[in-house]
Amino acid sequence: MTVAEFKESLTNDTPPPGLALALQAMWYQARGEWDQAHRLAQQQNDRTGAWVHAYLHRQEGDIGNANYWYRRADRSQPDQTLAEEWTDIVTILLGE
Q1: Pairwise CA distance, residues 21 & 81, whole Å
Q2: Does residue 72 have a pLDDT over 90?
Q3: pTM for this prediction
Q4: Distance from C-alpha of 73 to C-alpha of 54, rounded to nearest angstrom
């Protein structure tokens, strides 16, 4: 799946089948369903899940919590917009 196809799927009622929890979280976040995105990110207990978790808390404005999760993901808070980071995360997780 490409990023463009992922974005197109946002008009559907559910995320595309077969997506990892982190990508499902990014899908729900893009639809404005932060709570569902957060629940899914918490369920993926690895660095990828931590990265998405960090992004979600950065979006929420909870920078202290975001920085904790960036550290868990072995990343630092990026110097880019939330939209740019969203695209980067989705692109990397889709393997593009």
Answers
A1: 23
A2: yes
A3: 0.93
A4: 8
